Amino acid sequence: MPPAKPAFSAIAPEAGGMPLYRSAKRALLQQIESGAVPPGEALPSEAVLACAFGISVGTLRHAVDELVAEHILVRRQGRGTFVATHGADRFLFQFFHVERSDGLREVPAVELLSFERGRLDDEAIASSLGLKPGAPVFQFNNRLVLQGRPVVHDHITLPAALFKGLSDKRLRERPGTIYQLYQSEFGITVVRAQERARAVPCDRGSARVLGLAPGTPVMQVQRTALTFGDRPVEARVSTIHTGVHEYVHTLQRPA
Amino acid sequence: MPPAKPAFSAIAPEAGGMPLYRSAKRALLQQIESGAVPPGEALPSEAVLACAFGISVGTLRHAVDELVAEHILVRRQGRGTFVATHGADRFLFQFFHVERSDGLREVPAVELLSFERGRLDDEAIASSLGLKPGAPVFQFNNRLVLQGRPVVHDHITLPAALFKGLSDKRLRERPGTIYQLYQSEFGITVVRAQERARAVPCDRGSARVLGLAPGTPVMQVQRTALTFGDRPVEARVSTIHTGVHEYVHTLQRPA
DNA sequence: TAGTGGTCTAGACCACCTG
DNA sequence: AGGTGGTCTAGACCACTAC
After folding, report:
1. Taking CB atoms and an 8 Å cutoff, what residues of chain A touch B193?
2. In this structure, is the CB of residue A76 within 7 Å of any atom belonging to strand D?
3. Which of these, A88, A115, B89, B191, could form a disulfide with A140 (CB 3.0-4.6 Å)?
4. How far apart are CA B37 and CA B84, in angstroms?
5. Helices in B70-142 by DSSP H: which ranges?
6. Of B69, B246, B252, Cβ closest to residue A192
7. Which domains are assigned to chain B?
């Protein structure tokens, strides 16, 4: 069954104790998650939505405000409110934190080094994805190149159940970023991620990928990428050569 | 002159093209920065403020909403709206990102290892603080201990002009976190920070502090802490032993 | 010109906290 | 009981975009 046509029905008043704007937010999220309003598409206008939900425009705006703050919706004055897409811009500012020491940022060039379908044997990855060891997964390795230098080695694990039909060909021939592929080809929108970083001596595999001597200190970042409802969809181990480039982090949003 | 009494006067309508709620936000920020409403104190009620500014309550709330999102104000239902303070809680969740691999977080025990007043000679630190090389600064070293293990070596540089009268005694005898000291003793509120991380071989100094063999891979995090208006107030180099502990980072706020 | 989101108003009632 | 912030309404006008 293809995605159902959007259906914004009146909000059930029996929602116990929950403020109306929360109910409206949940209803909007549900329609977005279900694919009834695909990424890039415009929602009905605020007036129409408020009427459909049986609430005032101000209350609806409160709900939309929160979804905009979470980068799930994007408002464009005079045009409408749109479901967010994974453009290269968003990827760069929200999910890619490596830049040159002088602050230069660019979209990395990606090379697919290996690709295989197999069964999950790493227990840490299994638990971060909420899977049992032995679950079918795709695993592949990428080399990310910035300013002509290999800087990041990514080892990525995806639950096979969520990415049916993924192949090295589709990965190689994708037009944009990996998260754009997840979204456009598999209907999976990454909305959030958690990362844990360590400094480790570079192992032989990453040393070859990055052109380093084994044992060189590198940053190892374990990322779990999450979709709506904090459901994990990707486990990634990034090995970063921080000679010329650095891992950047701003604590609290810029005003 | 001690901090002026709070003066919330009508918003100048000649503020060119700026929305009223932005003007209100600036006016609130100005009163907070100037110390007219010290950290921990309550603002006048929304009704009073709106009346003083000559705007409606809804518009005032819009301004306050943004300051709450930036952790500059805190709302407490039934009590009032307060200027944020640097409690240990806030420090832990906003500025301290080291936790044990299993997720255990705790407030670190801090030991002051050295303290001196001198002149700035590091050019990178000078530029991050917006100072000229040779400017007078305080520099000191801390060891942070978690679960009985030395985990972080901090090297901190403060502009002497902003921290007049700082001494090793006052640092050692402070009751709470360092940022609480900045706020309560020097009127400096850290609202934001930028960090750049690298993996490096541990140098001799940090190796001694952390009880490691020199050359062990460690994370080196350079932080610039900022106050209102993005003015830099602290430069810090943290050297982190990521054997048992990790550096944690969540991309985008939890819903 | 018509439709969208952006700003703003002037109320209302509720939930919570303090006295 | 009285004051606070939290929610909600039903309008208004403006700025921007598309056609």
Report:
1. 250-252
2. yes
3. A115
4. 11
5. 88-90, 123-129
6. B252
7. 20-83 (1.10.10.10), 88-247 (3.40.1410.10)
